Amino acid sequence: MNPKVDFYFEKGKKWQEEFTKLRAIILDCGLNEELKWGHPCYTYGKANIVLMHGFKEYCALLFFKGALLNNKKGILIQQTENVQAARQIRFTNVQEIVKLQAILKAYIYEAIEVEKAGLKVELKKTPDYKVPEEFQVKLDKSAALKKAFAALTPGRQRAYLFYFSTPKQSKTREARVEKYIKQILSGKGLDD
Q: By CB distance 3.0 to 4.6 Å, which of 27, 54, 108, 168 could disulfide with 15?
């Protein structure tokens, strides 16, 4: 146990019994305990393996490379369609954790083996992202915008494409594109 992480378990009211049980299971698998992003994070060497976090409706273990795990028990959840690598196992009570203890350890040991083997999740490349029609119209009308967007790093391009394509309504997509044209022309990313 890492004393720097203790405050996380002491501060909250919800999920305390569940967190305590999950912590014991994870530490029993030989992982190091750290505090990252304000949450208990368990590592093997320098690699993040699993993170513990709580939500209103459930608490969860987040496996950083969960997409590479054999989900034969069907308990790993992809949070949203846009999450590429991570997978969660969700709990609503300590009895679920106790019941799944052996399976949880098996998933943790498998995640460690994935890391030892150096496996990587094949992430989508920029060309795999769809360019929303509202943005494509602007790109077609402005050579300067097209050039500026092409000059952005692939990560910045992906961030814009994802952000522009998320809304369901065309007018919202159009408003987002319009709002960020100057920023793109300035060579800045979405969050710069």
A: 54
Angle at 49 between CA 34 and CA 156, to 5 degrees: 95
pTM of the predicted protein model: 0.74
d(CA 171, CA 144): 23
Residue 11: pLDDT above 90? no
The DSSP secondary-structure symbol of 77 reads B
In angstroms, rounded to a whole number, what is the distance separating the alpha carbons of residues 100 and 70?
16
* Tokens of residue 51, six digits: 């993170």
- Taking Cα atoms as reference points, which of 97, 121, 101, 120 lies closest to residue 109? 101
Q: What is the spatial distance between Cα 4 and Cα 82, in angstroms, rounded to a whole number? A: 32
Q: Determine the CATH number of domain 3-116.
A: 3.90.1150.200
Bridge partners, residue 87, by sequence? 63
Residue 52 to residue 42: CA distance in whole angstroms: 8
Domain-by-domain residue ranges, the chain?
Answer: 3-116, 126-185
Contact 164, 137 (CB under 8 A): no
- Candidates 47, 42, 19; CA nearest to 31 is 42
